[in-house]
Structures are given as structure tokens and as C-alpha cells.
Amino acid sequence: MTAIVLFDGDCNFCDASVQFIIQRDTNGYFNYASLQSDVGQKLLKEHNMPEDLDSFMLVEDGQAYTKSAAALRITRHLDGAWKLLYALIVLPAPLRNFVYDYIAANRYKWFGKKDDHCMLPSPEVRQRFL
């Protein structure tokens, strides 16, 4: 089984987050699509999310997760001690999402937007992008 990580394709921080996940997902559990792509827009519509969703999104087992819930669910499948971060799911969602929203609101200011240049992934990684 695989899950799909949807991310802001214009965001340097989001791109770095995807690269972080790829490096620690040696089982290839995740596939990836930008929110702006046709696949991303189709998944947003299928899960009744707004077209202009401003959050990381995870589609896993037919369910859509956003914000901190998506990020924490992703950690469960990463190699190493990153799995332990999933324990933060016990914190109330408003508290977790307050931190998530603060980072999200400042991500362009802190990390910038992508220009027209991007990393060319290996063929093995490239096939995981939808």
C-alpha cells in the first residue's frame, strides 16, 4: 500500500520537506504530487477540500489528513527515531495546528518561493511523483 503526500509546489520549505521524507522513506511508501498539479486538484476535489488548500495533505487508506495530522502520520513511516514524533498526536489538534499554521504562514518569508529550477530526482524517485 502507498500513500500520497500533496504539497505546495511553489514552496521551498515544502520541497525540502518532500526531500526529507524521500530520504527517510526507504520502503517507498509515499508517492507525491503538488497541490497545483492535475492529480493534486483531483484529490482535493475527491476529498472535498478547497482548490486553494494551503496545507500539506496526506491521502492514506482513502482518508485525507491535513496540517499537523498529515505531518505526524507521515512520521510513522519514516526510518529511524522520526517515528517517535507520532506520539505528539495526543496533543489537542488546535494546539498542534497553531504551531503548524504559524510555520505555514511564514514559510515564504523564511524559506522563499521556488524559482524555475528544480532538482531532477533519480528515475526510482521520479516514478513516485504523480
TrEMBL record:
It comes from the Bacteria. Transmembrane segments: none annotated. One of its GO terms (molecular function) is protein-disulfide reductase activity. This is Thiol-disulfide oxidoreductase. The lineage of its organism: Bacteria, Bacillati, Bacillota, Bacilli, Bacillales.
